[in-house]
Specification:
It is a single chain. The protein has 9 helices and 8 strands. By secondary structure, it is α/β, with parallel strands linked by helices.
Length: 309
């Protein structure tokens, strides 16, 4: 399909800025810019929002807990933010967290995991897995049901959601009901898929951007570790049901779809949905591009189905 008109306009505006490549900009500036582009969306009212901290031997992990109501035994969505493991925080994931909270009637717990390059792989994985363990052990005191937990994330957060599902299976940790993987990063071993070649530049997230994110996050020799590149896992059997959402004009499209199809082949109840005409990042565009609300509804409907009591 042709590029959605709103994304065509957005990309034209980005092109006019003539910004330097990510690798030429100090990380702190990129992080500040990302926050500016993804502000807190207070217009989406939530019953109760609370910040907390998870203590681990390595790090005090900040989390944010969104509660849609004071009802007991609510289902729970543990959400990991995107940003290439280098940028992003509790602020940048706020909008989609509020949307998912209201759209599912579930508690949403967002995780401010350690970022690269200060903290390289597997720091983010360790933090995200620790957060899932904490949720299972503690969420009941916040009105949540530890037996109804979903994992979710977009982009690098989608990578971490998939990885946490793998790690939890391997280590017999908390078993999530399902995993929502929104245009996830799945494979750092290659950059020559059709979607990388077709969308290499000019669509927001470029091939050079993704190469830089991977360089900042994990050493080349560790790229085939399944906890970095889930597509490299020996088997995907026994993982939670998944919804993999991809964008037509996104370098990550093909690896996400390959992961979803492999999940199906290995017996995992999974759905793969491509959003034609969209670019990377559509999950956080519901406030500015109304057509993307359908994708948010699809995500919430999937979560609700699998989190039923």
């Amino acid at each position: 399909m042709p590029l959605h008109p709103a994304y065509f306009q957005k990309l034209q505006e980005l092109k006019a800025l003539d910004s330097p490549p990510l690798r030429e900009v100090p990380v702190e500036i990129i992080r500040t810019m990302f926050q500016t582009l993804h502000p807190v969306r207070t217009e989406i009212a939530i019953e109760h929002i609370e910040d907390a901290t998870i203590s681990t031997p390595a790090y005090e992990i900040p989390i944010r807990i969104y509660r849609p109501s004071n009802k007991p035994k609510l289902p729970v969505v543990v959400m990991y933010h995107g940003g290439g493991w280098v940028i992003g925080d509790l602020t940048t994931v706020d909008g989609q967290s509020r949307e998912v909270c209201l759209g599912t009637g579930a508690i949403v717990v967002t995780v401010d995991y350690r970022l690269a390059p200060e903290h390289r792989f597997p720091a983010a994985v360790d933090d995200c897995f620790a957060a899932l363990q904490w949720v299972e052990e503690n969420i009941e005191s916040y009105g949540g049901d530890p037996g109804r937990i979903a994992l979710a994330g977009d982009s690098a957060g989608g990578n971490l959601a998939a990885v946490v599902a793998l790690k939890s299976r391997d280590e017999r940790g908390p078993q999530a009901r399902c995993q929502l993987l929104v245009y996830p990063v799945i494979d750092g071993t290659r950059f020559d898929t059709s979607s990388y070649l077709e969308n290499a530049e000019g669509f927001g997230l470029s091939v050079d951007d993704m190469k830089w994110f991977w360089e900042e996050y994990v050493d080349q020799g560790n790229r085939d570790n399944p906890y970095a590149s889930p597509l490299m896992a020996e088997t995907l059997e026994g993982l939670p049901p998944a919804l993999v959402m991809t964008a037509e004009y996104d370098v990550l499209r093909d690896e996400g779809e390959a992961y979803g199809e492999r999940l199906k082949l290995e017996g995992v109840a999974s759905e793969v949905v491509r959003y034609d005409g969209y670019t990377h990042g559509f999950f956080s565009d519901t406030g500015t591009i109304p057509d993307t609300r359908k994708a948010m509804k699809d995500a919430c409907d999937f979560l609700k189905r699998h989190l039923r009591d």
